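Hypothesis: this fold can be encoded by more than one sequence.
Test: take the structure tokens below, design a sequence, compare later.
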């Protein structure tokens, strides 16, 4: 794959969806772009503002929270895995409204609690808490909301 073909391929991807630098590098590597050509292609994409990790982090956090009800911890872990800078991660997490965050957590706990018969025993409460924590919500916020 030539650098021009790689640029055109990556530009077409970026015009369809938001991608971060590490995702584009991975895709270009899988397509067979020579590693020595990679920096020039990535630089051109960044100059054209087709990839921008900060913008990606903001969109990723919004989408994962609003559509999939991920908590801050899970979003942060995923963004770190994608090699997003700590400042961009912090900005992305800061955009999540506290009231919406609390409401999402309450909804997740209520939905999971409905699948158990009342009164909830210790095992059921533990399972509900584990579920909410696995979604990326902080244990300090989860445990006080677990129904008795």
């Amino acid at each position: 794959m030539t650098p021009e073909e790689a640029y055109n391929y990556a530009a077409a991807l970026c015009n369809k969806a938001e991608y971060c630098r590490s995702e584009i590098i991975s895709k270009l590597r899988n397509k067979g772009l020579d590693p020595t050509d990679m920096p020039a292609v990535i630089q051109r994409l960044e100059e054209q503002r087709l990839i921008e990790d900060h913008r990606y982090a903001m969109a990723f956090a919004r989408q994962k929270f609003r559509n999939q009800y991920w908590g801050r911890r899970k979003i942060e872990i995923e963004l770190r895995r994608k090699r997003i800078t700590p400042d961009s991660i912090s900005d992305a997490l800061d955009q999540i409204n506290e009231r919406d965050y609390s409401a999402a957590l309450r909804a997740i706990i209520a939905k999971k609690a409905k699948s158990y018969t009342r009164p909830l025993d210790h095992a059921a409460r533990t399972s509900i808490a584990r579920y909410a924590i696995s979604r990326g919500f902080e244990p300090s916020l989860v445990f006080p909301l677990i129904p008795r």
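The mean pLDDT is 93. The two ends are 60 Å apart (CA to CA).
Hypothesis status: open.
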